Amino acid sequence: MVNPAIPIVRRSYQAYADKDRATIEELIDADFHFTSPVDNRIDRKTYFERCWPNSKTLAGFEFANLATDGERVFVTYEARTSGGKRFRNTEIVTVRNGKIVEVEVYFGWSLPHEAPAGGFVPAQRRDALARAHPRRAK
Hints:
Structural class: alpha+beta
Strand order of the largest sheet: 2-1-6-5-4-3
CATH architecture: Roll
Largest sheet: 6 strands, mixed
Distance between the termini: 40 Å
Helix content: 25-40%
Strand content: 35-45%
Number of domains: 1
Radius of gyration: 16 Å
């Protein structure tokens, strides 16, 4: 049996790709909170002000991993932007009573990866990434 949270989570990502604000509003609980390396448990209102505008540039998602642990769905995806860029993130989405109540985002990397296979980003570039995303590049 498929965990009932998975279809809800899939619909939320599709709403971003479709720019379907009505659907995402329906899926997100009134007591929703969102955390990322640049947002610390922001509420639903702030989330829609800060994060929803990003839907303009998102063209779609391909799921690499969807795993559940009770009400939590662990999602790793590759996103495509309307400008042709791609990036990979992991998120933990908590679904309770059919609504998304919490999202934690862990930034990944751009695709293709900036570092060569088996290698790493040069120190100068790594330092620039660390300044831009303090918890992302250590």
